[in-house]
Amino acid sequence: MSHSVELEVGVSSPLGASVVGEGVNFAVYAPQAQHMSLCLFDSSGHSEILTLAMHMNEGGIWTLKVSPLKSGALYGFRADGEYAPEKGLFFNNHKLLLDPYARDLYGEFTWSERHYGQMPVGKLSQVNNAIDMPKSRVRELAPYTGKKPNHSWGKTVIYECHVVGATCRHPEIPKSLQGKFLGLSHPSFIEHLRTIGVTCLELLPIHAFISEQFLTAKGLQNYWGYNTLNFFTPHKEYLVNDDISEFQEMVAALHKADIEVILDVVYNHTAEAGTDGPILSLRGLDNLGYYRTVADKPQHYINDTGCGNTVNIDSPRSLQLVLDSLRYWVEVMGVDGFRFDLATILARNPNGFNQAHAFFQAINQDPVLSQVKLIAEPWDIGPGGYQLGAFPAPWREWNDKYRDTIRRFWKQEQGVIGELAKRLHGSFDLFEHNLRGPLNSINFITSHDGFTLADLVSYENKHNEANGEQNRDGHSDNHSFNCGVEGFTNDPQVSKLRLQQQKNMLLTLLLSKGVPMLSLGSEMAHSQGGNNNAYCQNNRTSWLAWKDSQFSHPLTRFIDDVLRIRKQFSIFKHRFFVHDNDPRYDVAWFTESGTNMQQDDWHQGDRQVLIYSLTDKHTNQALLIILNAGSEPVTCQLPNLDKGKWQLALTSIHPMSTQFVDKEHEIAAMSSWVFTANSEDLNHG
Fold this sequence. Notes:
single chain; GlgX_Isoamylase_N_E_set; Immunoglobulin-like; hydrolase; alpha+beta; TIM Barrel; Glycogen debranching protein GlgX
């Protein structure tokens, strides 16, 4: 790049770096900065070749247009002003700052003392951190033009997935693509997803992130990615050729296979951590605007995330940053929706969670964002942070009450039958009060956070020693059941029971009303060796083993079998709760003797069998489900049919069968059964 450049004031919108003719317009928000500099680097990213003063515009936005300059140019910002942590001000001209709107990054982030504002404490650091910082890179991709699947929620089956863990050991994916975005779009992985009936891939965080310093000091790294550095850039380690268009390419391939892509996004905190954390981007531009601080004590952050800082969505510019990022990932990168980590944060006012928060209102009226899939993790660790059921339409929510109830039932905990029935039918007690339906519940039994499905039936205690925190991290109350032996065993009876229990929970999940979510590896009994908090385990603890052909594992086939049944019955697509006198659907509950459940039956504390039928009067279809969590077999009288016999469709203990069954049937201990019938009516008498 020639050092002979033409400089103009530039324009305030859009924020970030935009190619305009032969030049690039730069715009950054820093309302309390006294001076702002644009720093341009050579192609290696090592040499700062130009430092240019920017111009203050109305609204606190600094701008500069530089010509000639083109896509690929490397840059950063420096903000000068008062450095006074006790006032919540962290301006330090010696710190190179990432553009919050950078579409691309170049180079590596390296932890060092250079990133901190004062060394030693109390003395302003005058050390330039540029050598340890990635550089913002000018890059503009054309908007996404592929056709999106647009699956209805009633047809959606989510697979929660990690880019690396899913593909880095897959034998049919080329080494160069393993652990990359393009590995997820490889035909062999797409074929696997289609084999188990997945319609939606939910990716753990793929925004550019860094590992926390306390992890790197222990030789570990942040594997999950919940430590965001930039809200617009794909994580560079997931790229093959350092080209962000590979993400678009992945999305397009998945869309062609009729699979949607949802991103797990982290807008609740950033990698700048607490007050004593590094100055990397937002903190050095507008700390008091971007982060929540304690009233009258701006030197202290509010830490409702447990990660040191909390993004202040009440600030109009913070809200704009989040909305602009979301819109970019939909319009340019092509994604179909988002799962919001610690979503309660996004709707917090100083007085707590607000269902009418500007964040909800802005998304609801946005012509782009109001049309995508929106999923909340409906809690944070702040006051009143647990908000399951409180999000407005059209939001969906992770339902941890569903998760815990299913686990408690299958580990043989007594007294849960009544709550189990609520969870199986969409959790009306949580969602109906604000005019939402069963499809607002994202049902799951396992996720990235906690035991895998295989470990849930293999361990009763967490085994997180490898995380370097003396096994203090991770949840201790897992509602898990090890089937008689803690951890690995060669005992064939224990192994048989564990497989059966995994099938029981998968059948329960996939035949519940709501939107089912499978976690990575549930279809192949993936184990993390009892680690229920593998956030820092970027190794074989977290990576799928792919020992068998993707078609041969019994759980892979079982999931496919259950989802085939789910697709045949429209009640699972129905958007409303089924109540008495429903014109189309009927739900009935039975005792083991075939009679209707009465009030006393529901309150029978030792009852561990649940029997219910789902009838579609329009299609003359009936489904009978029997769940026996008890340790003894139970002889059940199947409910009367108006005509014909019940047909065994699926069970967790036998291979697939098409046999018709007699009215009386023995239900094995710790097993689940599905029967189907074509019937004009069930005789409930």
